[in-house]
Specification:
The chain is an all-alpha fold. Helices cover about 75% and strands about 0% of the residues.
């Protein structure tokens, strides 16, 4: 009768191990989601920093173009001349 006896201490240990494995399984999905979200947030922060730098560059360019004579200077860089002026090309 000793051979057919159930050892409840071993059954309890295996049940605890099973519950522990199940709880770990339940944490795997959210942990993967958290890791991917963290990586995406890092990429978005880098993108925002890049866009802020570009925004500052464009604001500086706008300030430059608002100065007196800036538009005329830009037009002359493009090869434009005022009405009545003669264009001379030096090669």
């Amino acid at each position: 009768m000793v051979a057919g006896r159930i050892r409840w201490d071993r059954v309890g240990r295996w049940a605890l191990i099973g519950v522990f494995v199940f709880v770990l399984y339940l944490y795997v999905g959210p942990a993967r989601t958290w890791i991917s979200t963290y990586g995406e947030a890092k990429r978005k922060r880098a993108e925002v920093a890049q866009l802020r730098a570009e925004n500052e560059r464009l604001r500086e360019r706008r300030r430059e173009l608002r100065r007196a004579g800036a538009i005329e200077h830009e037009a002359r860089k493009l090869g434009m001349v005022k009405a009545g002026e003669k264009l001379y090309v030096v090669r």
